[in-house]
Automatic annotation (TrEMBL):
PANTHER family with a match to the protein in the record: PROTEIN VES
CDD domains associated with the record: cupin_HutD_N
Organism expressing this protein natively: Paracoccus sanguinis
SUPFAM superfamilies: RmlC-like cupins
Pfam families in the cross-refs: HutD
Descriptive protein name: HutD family protein
Amino acid sequence: MRIVRRAELTGQPWRNGGGVTWQIAAGPEGADVAAFDWRLSMAEVAADGPFSAFPGIDRTLTLIEGAGLALDFGGGTVRLAPGDAPLSFPGEAPVTGRLIAGPVIDLNVMTRRGVLSHHVEPLAAGEAAPAGTVALVALSPQPGPAGGAGLAPGDTLLADPAGGLDGLAAAGPALAVVLRPARPQRWISGAADA
């Protein structure tokens, strides 16, 4: 496992130019924003406006800093604040964000539909990471793993490619990012080919 320090991440403009994102990790190794199978990042939303579209991608957004964000999906609005449950939605959905009171920072997990699936699970101090956990994102200052350097909010414990973080106890409030292979399609016997 390794620690990815939030303070050491390099910001990049959103695909639509409407904000800044800091990539924490992506796979396969070296994949850019157009070719990833999975991506873990943080983003600053500093102004109202549309989110970038990611056709064929499933997304989960968790607000980690700021007063709140209202997401308009065209047919309804969802309000998010730090501590709220993660919100999952298809990347091709037209989404416009409206700030409640100043800039916010969110954690964004994306997986390519049909290749991988994901979920984000909030953990309290002492809770064990579920099976398939590839990252633990600290939500508050906490001691580092095995007595190492401490973690600041937004620092991430990232699993080695050969193994996950299954069962690791969170040292403080954290978000567990779980990746799994996409479920294989089940074909009905005798069904006609489409």
